[in-house]
Design brief:
heterodimer, A: mainly alpha, B: 2 domains, two-stranded antiparallel sheet, two-stranded antiparallel ribbon, 53% helix, 6% strand, elongated
Chain lengths: 358, 322
């Protein structure tokens, strides 16, 4: 038995062979069989401990090839050591150590299946669009809610213009109020090219919108009701603005002004709302699955969508901060917005990538 | 502890300990039962406080540094056409992005790492792990799960703080809606107290839980060397116990004895040695308790382990046989 073990130890790493022999010599002194068991394997346990500690500290490059190759074998040996020890030894210190080490080694051996780079590649090469398609019905609900919100905003304001102040609390210096002249409204859409600090504006927009969309998603936990309210709140503003500019014959110009970034930003908000509703719906109606299983399945899919939402909001902020101010005519604005919309639709619903469904 | 009338009386377990309520088991692909301990709510609260302190302290330092740079160079009052304004712009943009990342990416970055723990979690000795399936089979932690559990942090942590803060400030005229929102967010914030595994909302939608990540050293075996042979290093006496002397104790008492020997406090050693001597009708005399106990420990362990090999286990001194 002991010779077999020492041979095993030698093949694992010559480094420890001398220690191994010393341990075997010491084993002759040990009076308990379980102590001999421990002494024969102790060096391999310590070696595994060392490797695991290095990997946990993120210093995987500092490990020798021999160590990395030995890791699975050492882990298996530890697993069998622990199984045997549970049946044969009453040394609590050894058992506790082995259980702790087995747990840490398990996390290292069965860690995340992909590195960050691998995950990123899978995300862009189909993972993201598959997740978006996976919550398709929830996006449809969110879209219906958003359209309804815009219609509600329009109808409310057209019946009683006072609603405008409720939906869009007036800010000092904002010319966009009911009764504003054509020229004033026109000036708010065009001729902002001289503005400075566009990059700060873009960064601010991103940070703000990303915060709101994450909130919208997180509130989905309350059975999807709050995201619906947030979506309605967002789009009633759009409805009210459309009514205002429509009154002065500037509908298409406003749509152009909005669409530069809006096709990306509203799409991102739509996805965030859809992701929130997806989780809420999975928890409210889990079907045959347990609620916890349904929630975690929905949550992981929605998390993929939300990673994409944050990236889309970066794009939207750049478009809103730069492109909208620098492009000063309706037709090219519509073109940019239309191209962006076409791109997102193609990417999400036509591009299939390498990943089928997740 | 007091017991309410509707609570079931817990059977008194000799030697049961409190951490058992948090003990769980997962089954790995190798067929190994791995014991896990759910992290205590206190450790988790401590971890998140440490993390938030680091994040916001770092943010404060960066902010002060930038203010110092801007004031030192006088670039905040520059004419918009001045090219040096680019530096000012870059600083502000960097600050906004940094603030966003600090709040959102800190937890993500560290929990995606091989330790599955933020610095705060490392300090409190806990980590995140994937919850096992219904059959107890261990599952891998995925990147999506880590992202999902961290996206909910706003609702669970920051929103309640904001709402509670505003409710306290305007305590006299808080509206009904304000109170409703407060209660609602309190449910999110206190969620870990309402379930057995101390899951927070983020854990639920991610399929994760937080467990203890012990880093133990391998303690030396007590049954080796001279004392293990029953020979005292102090007096040279040779302790050898008969079968009836050893038959009175079981595995639980062996573990207690091991703990006493490792703690190595002379007074406790003397008390335990005295108890054993009275039980088995010996009089070992004072001064050599440690050698006596080590010898008793080794021989009791040898006896119990031999029984174990043949399927005879004796859990504690009340158990029938060993």
């Amino acid at each position: 038995m002991s010779t077999a073990v020492s041979r095993f130890g030698e093949t694992l790493g010559g480094l420890f062979s001398r220690k191994q022999e010393a341990a075997i010599a010491a084993a002759e002194v040990a009076s308990l069989r379980s102590d001999r068991f421990r002494q024969e394997r102790e060096d391999d346990w310590r070696r595994l401990d060392h490797i695991v500690r290095r990997i946990e500290a993120g210093r995987i490059r500092g490990l020798s090839d021999a160590d990395l190759e030995a890791l699975p074998a050492l882990y298996r040996m530890l697993v069998s050591s622990l199984s045997v020890a549970r049946e044969t030894t009453l040394d609590a210190a050894t058992l506790r150590y082995l259980e702790g080490l087995a747990q840490r080694a398990w996390f290292v051996v069965h860690g995340p299946e992909l590195g960050f780079r691998g995950w990123f590649r899978r995300f862009f090469a189909g993972g993201w669009s598959a997740a978006v398609r996976g919550i398709g019905s929830d996006i449809a609900i969110a879209l219906a809610v958003m359209i309804a919100g815009a219609v509600i905003g329009w109808v409310l304001v057209s019946n009683n213009p006072d609603w405008f102040y409720t939906l869009m609390p007036p800010e000092p210096g904002d010319v966009r109020v009911p009764g504003a002249s054509h020229a004033a409204l026109y000036a708010s859409l065009f001729g902002q090219t001289h503005q400075t600090d566009l990059s700060i504006f873009a960064a601010y927009l991103f940070s703000n919108n990303a915060g709101v969309s994450i909130l919208c998603f997180a509130l989905g936990f309350a059975f999807g009701v709050p995201p619906i309210l947030l979506l309605v709140h967002n789009t009633t503003e759009v409805g009210a603005l459309l009514w205002l500019y429509h009154g002065q014959g500037l509908t298409l110009d406003l749509i152009g002004w909005l669409s530069v970034h809006g096709t990306t930003e509203l799409f991102a908000i739509l996805l965030a709302g859809g992701a929130g509703i997806h989780i809420g719906r999975a928890m409210a109606f889990p079907g045959t699955r347990a609620v916890l299983d349904a929630a975690s399945e929905a949550g992981r899919r929605a998390a993929t969508v939300m990673t994409g939402v944050v990236l889309m909001l970066v794009v939207a902020a750049l478009l809103e901060g730069f492109a909208r101010q620098l492009i000063n005519a309706t037709a090219p604005r519509l073109a940019v917005g239309g191209i962006m919309l076409a791109w997102w639709l193609t990417y999400f619903f036509i591009y299939r990538g390498q990943v089928r469904t997740r | 502890m007091a017991r309410w009338p509707w609570q079931k009386k817990k059977p008194a377990v000799y030697g049961g300990n409190l951490t058992n309520r948090r003990a769980r088991e997962i089954l790995t692909a190798e067929g190994l039962r791995l014991p896990l301990t759910i992290a205590s709510r206190g450790a988790r609260a401590g971890a998140v406080l440490i993390d938030l302190f680091i994040v916001y302290f770092g943010l404060l330092l960066i902010t002060l540094l930038f203010v110092w740079i801007v004031n030192g160079l006088h670039i905040n009052k520059l004419d918009p056409k001045n090219p040096a304004r680019v530096i000012f712009q870059a600083l502000v943009v960097f600050w906004i992005i940094f603030a966003f990342l600090a709040r959102n990416a800190w937890f993500l970055w560290f929990e995606l790492g091989p330790r599955g723990a933020t610095p705060g979690k490392r300090m409190t000795g806990i980590r995140i792990a994937a919850r096992p399936g219904r059959d107890g089979a261990a599952t891998r932690l995925s990147a999506e799960a880590v992202i999902a559990r961290n996206l909910l942090r706003d609702v669970e942590l920051f929103m309640p703080v904001i709402f509670i803060g505003s409710a306290l400030r305007t305590s006299s005229d808080t509206t009904l809606a304000g109170w409703a929102a407060l209660v609602w967010f309190a449910i999110f914030a206190l969620f870990p107290f309402f379930n057995r595994d101390a899951l927070r909302c983020g854990d639920i939608i991610a399929g994760t839980w937080v467990v203890e990540a012990p880093r133990r050293k391998l303690d030396a075996a007590l049954s080796l060397g001279e004392a293990g042979q029953g020979i005292s290093a102090v007096t040279g006496a040779h302790y050898r116990f008969g079968d009836t002397d050893l038959a009175i104790y079981g595995e639980y008492e062996l573990q207690v004895l091991e703990r006493v020997l490792r703690d190595n406090r002379p007074q406790v050693l003397a008390e335990v040695a005295d108890t054993i001597c009275r039980k088995i009708g010996w009089s070992a005399g004072a001064g050599d308790e440690r050698a006596f106990l080590e010898a008793y420990y080794t021989q009791l362990r040898a006896r119990l382990e031999t029984g174990m090999r043949f399927g005879n286990r004796k859990a504690d001194k009340f158990a029938e046989r060993a």
